[in-house]
Amino acid sequence: MRHSSLTVRDHFTGSITASDSRIAVSSENVRLEGDSRLTSSALTVSDGGRLHVKGGLETDGGVTLGWRNPLVDGGSVRNDVYERLLPGQRSVAAERKR
């Protein structure tokens, strides 16, 4: 998807490839099974959401996580600032673009 907005509020299994987009996760049942790549895209996982990364997730955009939810469950996450993002951390890459 390109120049789009995706909000996941229910079950989702698969992978996401996005460019210049916004992805919001508010469901506990989101599984990224394959490799996902977010280019210049913002990812937000709300306090009610949980993102299970079973494959890989690579992003160069901003990542915002709720304080009570882990992002990684057995997969790998790569960001240009953090090797692995922890709850409450936000990518500095998004701040640089402002």
What's this, in brief?
By secondary structure, this protein is mostly beta strands.
Protein topology:
Blueprint: E1 5-8, E2 12-14, E3 17-19, E4 22-25, E5 30-32, E6 35-39, E7 42-45, E8 51-53, E9 56-59, E10 63-65, E11 76-79, H1 92-97
Parallel strand pairs: 1-4, 2-5, 3-6, 4-7, 5-8, 6-9, 7-10, 9-11
EC number: 3.4.21.-
Keywords: Hydrolase
Protein name: Peptidase S6, IgA endopeptidase from phage origin
Describe it.
GO terms for molecular function: hydrolase activity. This is Peptidase S6, IgA endopeptidase from phage origin. Its EC number is 3.4.21.-. With 98 residues, the chain is mainly beta. It has one domain (5-83). The protein is built from one helix and eleven strands. It has a four-stranded parallel beta sheet, with no helix packed on it. Strands 3-6-9-11 form a four-stranded parallel beta sheet, with no helix packed on it. Strands 2-5-8 form a three-stranded parallel beta sheet, with no helix packed on it. The chain is globular and about 25 Å long. The relative contact order is 0.18. Mean pLDDT is 76; it is low at 89-98.
